[in-house]
Design goal:
binds nickel (II) ion; four-stranded parallel β-sheet; about 10% strand; Rossmann fold; 9 helices; about 250 residues; alpha/beta
């Protein structure tokens, strides 16, 4: 059930039988020549909504304005600072907990959200809050590796582009038809969680916005399969966790 399409009475009735809620977290930032600006938000939302339907869960509106300072030299990126995002999440959590939601599951689609989400969750000792990024789910990760191997890269990944192709539209590859520079394992490890440099420097280093990802390998068929696997796995994980899983995974 979508929270934004429910009435308050429906939410109150829902809370009589479940305290669980899924919150998708994405971003609004450039995703290379063929990736939509809303890619991260779209992926998180589509997965969360599909999973919520399977698990009979409430799903909140997507957190789409999040930190992406490193992409601010690309027009269309809308970024907020980490402290602002963390404060927003903190206040939203306070509200949800006060209404009786006691199992809050963030379905994340943007690496830079992880640190502030984790810090905000830590502000509520004893609350049941789980944070999962869709690409780390075992079944999804296996598909990503099978489809794209190393060409998955870090940003404007073929798997995220494939999901938006399945759900929204296909943009011709343009300059992304050519493979990008392949990143070393060392680079990937040092920049995990989107730890990228200042915006101008980031654009100079990755002029078309792709970070080691061969977006043009994406197909809507892949996207459909990734989406299905992610929705099913998230629904299962959410239900297991809600039924008595760990305090914080
Ligand atoms: Ni992304």
């Amino acid at each position: 059930m979508r929270l934004d399409l429910a009435t308050w009475q429906e939410v109150e009735t829902y809370l009589e039988t479940s305290g669980g809620i899924v919150i998708p977290a994405g971003s609004t930032e450039q995703h290379g020549p063929m990736g939509l600006i809303g890619t991260d938000a779209i992926c998180a939302q589509e997965i969360a909504e599909g999973a919520a339907e399977l698990a009979d869960a409430m799903v909140a509106p997507t957190l789409a304005y999040t930190p992406a300072p490193f992409n601010m030299a690309f027009p269309g990126t809308m970024s907020v600072s980490e402290p602002l995002f963390e404060a927003l999440v903190l206040e939203l959590l306070e509200g949800l907990l006060s209404h009786g939601f006691d199992g809050i599951y963030f379905l994340n689609g943007h690496g830079a959200n992880l640190a502030p989400l984790t810090r905000a969750a830590e502000g509520f000792a004893g609350a049941r809050i789980r944070i999962r990024s869709w690409w780390e789910i075992e079944a999804v990760d296996a598909l990503r590796k099978a489809y794209y191997g190393d060409w998955e890269g870090m940003h404007a990944t073929p798997s995220e582009v494939a999901i938006t192709q399945a759900t929204h539209r296909i943009v011709p590859p343009g300059s992304a038809a050519k493979a990008p520079e392949k990143l070393s394992q060392d680079y990937i490890e040092r920049h995990a969680g989107d730890r990228h440099g200042p915006a101008e420097q980031h654009r100079q280093r990755f002029p078309d916005g792709r970070v080691g990802s061969h977006s043009a390998l994406a197909t809507p068929q892949h996207g459909g399969a990734l989406l299905k696997a992610a929705q099913a796995s998230v629904a299962e994980d959410y239900l297991d966790w809600l039924a008595g899983g760990p305090q914080r995974g």
